[in-house]
Amino acid sequence: MSKRARRMNRRGSAAVSEGAIVAASDSRGGSVEAFTFGDPEPVLSRATMLDMLECYHNQRWYEPPISLDGLARAFRASPHHSSAIILKRNMLAASLDPTPFLSRKAFAGLVQDYLVMGNAYVQEVRNRLGGVMRLDHCLAKYARRGVEPGRFWWVAGYRNETEFEPGTVHQLMAPDINQEIYGLPEYLSALQAALLNENATLFRRRYFENGSHAGYILYATGDFADGDVDNMREALKRSKGPGNFRNLFVHASGGKENGIKILPIAEVGAKDEFLGIKNTTRDDVLAAHRVPPQLLGIVPANAGGFGDVTKATDAFFELEIEPLQSVFLELNDVLGFEAVRFRERVKAE
């Protein structure tokens, strides 16, 4: 084998790198042929895509490293993705002890922005003497951090930007390992799973809406009277579109056994592993959000269930909600007075 193998010349090597089929030896019959297809794919190209994104600026404000509009639209891509975020928001809002400066409504908006966008912005509304009257919630989707420290901009559209009064806006951000200007949400590793979950649902919905999924081959080999084949063909045509899933009756007098066979092809032509995709992507999303499944109303597949929901709630509150509370308590240090306060939670016996 080694004696017959020959080296490829430069031309052959170049052809191989371009994806062509190249023979290892074209001078001897029956030689081994080597071929390759597809371009080289760097393993880390997509994994490090966010690392190369920079927060560039236009001399006034920095742009986020990831599309905030895309994060907003992906919020409702998967029911488990949005439900996990809403659960955390509701539990945090319920644990708040409102102060004269911060209402529960404004706080709920801050929490939702922080969980979805990785950033939350609060604006001081001051009186004529310069004292703080209340704290308002600024939508993180349109807020931008200024190039100069302490300055923030409201960018709701092209040429509709407005600068906030310096020193009146404060930012809470989820830490990122690549930059310190904007925060990034924790669920980015499961964002593709949430989008795949949505695509699987849309594909299955369109599959049933198109009305062209009879899913079988009617194989007839028997003897039929004149016009019977045409009648069957017309009946099959009427089975598509609105009113499909109808039954078809065929009577062949004097026909033989197995004269008419139905060969199902739906398993091959439309196999998309719908349940497998839905369950796998759901688990990925829940793992990213670290939410127990019983808190989201998921029906257990086994008879044993998910365990005691009260204990799961206590553990979830201690491991997830309390650390999030500490994030918003940082506002007190920035403002210099107590604007955020939480009630002490009593665990269920």
From TrEMBL:
Pfam families: Phage_portal (PF04860). InterPro entries: PBSX_Proteobac, Phage/GTA_portal, Phage_portal_PBSX. It comes from the Bacteria. Belongs to the phage portal family. PBSX subfamily. This is Phage portal protein. It comes from Sphingobium tyrosinilyticum.
